[in-house]
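Sample intake sheet
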Amino acid sequence: MLQTPVSTDMATPQTRAASRAISSRRPVVAAPLSTRAHAVFVLALVASGWGILALRKGDRRHRALGWTWVCAMAAMGTTSLIVPHGANWVAAYVGGASHIRFWLTVCTPSSEETVVGTAE
């Protein structure tokens, strides 16, 4: 019976190159400013979103994180319009459409009487 040697190193040259690229700062530094800003706003969205979910509704910190999330969403949508998309024009239109829809939602007055920041 033939036994094939088993390598403990399962990494291929492509995965090694990818891990070096991930751990390197060069791609980040080489990216346009709009792309770097867009990434920072996305990280702020994720962090504030988890914070919002972790805190009790109506709490002062919950409200502050909520406004942080709204501002980061507006900034992320704005930068999505100016990030170079290359040949992927669909991403540009989806980003623009979501940004327009965000502002329509934020700026449209509610038909119900609501008090912002109170627990239900």
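Comment: The longest helix spans residues 60-82. Residues 19 and 57 are 40 Å apart (CA to CA).
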